[in-house]
Amino acid sequence: MDVVEQALAEHVRSRAGFVTEAASHLMEAGGKRFRPLLVLLAAEAGSHPDSDEVVTAACVVELTHLASLYHDDVMDEAQLRRGAVSANARWDNHVAILTGDFLFSKSSELTAELGADAVRIQAQTFTKLVEGQILETVQPGPDEDPLAHYLDVVAGKTGSLIATSARYGARFGGAAPEVEEALTAYGEIVGSAFQLSDDILDIASDHDVSGKTPGTDLREGVPTLPVLMARASADPADARLLELLDGDLTDDARHAEALALLRRHPALEQARAYVVAQAAEAKDRLSVVPDGPVRQALEAFADVVATRSS
């Protein structure tokens, strides 16, 4: 990861100082580096995990992710990202959008170094990612299940790139084709579970432990797994909660009441059980990976995603 960090710092450099500053802004703010970490971990299932191509692939997925964050913050009119002022708030929407484009371009340049097949995989991944982002802005149709619609959004926005992270690691680390396919499926499931665990943290987290402000998505009316599961309840006792969810949650008192009701609602445990089941399904895909430290690390990785507190 130290090598990847150093490479990322070089890849966001531009001949123009301002572009370098803007492109470095979110990267220097930190982040979990979940995607490049999975590239490196998946590469350990192959015969040459230390290849230069593995590091390049790790940079590709992180730059793609960073680029999407710049665009996300414009769409969401976000003021903060990773505890720092967002690029659109620090400069403006134009700078944020074009910086995201710059990072997508740098990611594409690096992908070309990995060969034509990697370019195809990256293009397909980007298609799914953007489709997920577009679907997020569209309300589900009258005959469409809102939860199924949301899970589609998560699979596109988050699962697709994390699946590619695992695929790239396996491929450029020299893993067998059946291991690459298994790790790709594992990555897609773990990637979606990663977002869904964030949904649970939004309701259940303690700020002192997670560092997150509880109920941020709830206040902004962003659909999340526990909320959608609570909305599906037919229990008459949920009338007050549904009334609050349909109303203005920017009001502090209404927001606090809705948050308290959700924390006591069976939907929260239902959501937790769903994410734990997703982690178990991801681990089942690892049966073709030889037993040993690599498989154990991948299994532990899935468990951490499902049960994390930050």
TrEMBL record:
It holds the Pfam family polyprenyl_synt. Belongs to the FPP/GGPP synthase family. It comes from the Bacteria. PROSITE patterns: POLYPRENYL_SYNTHASE_2. Coiled coil: none annotated. This is Polyprenyl synthetase family protein. GO terms for molecular function: transferase activity. It comes from Nocardioides taihuensis. The keyword Chaperone does not apply. Its cofactor is Mg(2+). SUPFAM superfamilies: Terpenoid synthases. InterPro entries: Isoprenoid_synthase_dom_sf (IPR008949), Polyprenyl_synt (IPR000092), Polyprenyl_synt_CS (IPR033749). Keywords: Magnesium, Metal-binding, Transferase. Its EC number is 2.5.1.-.
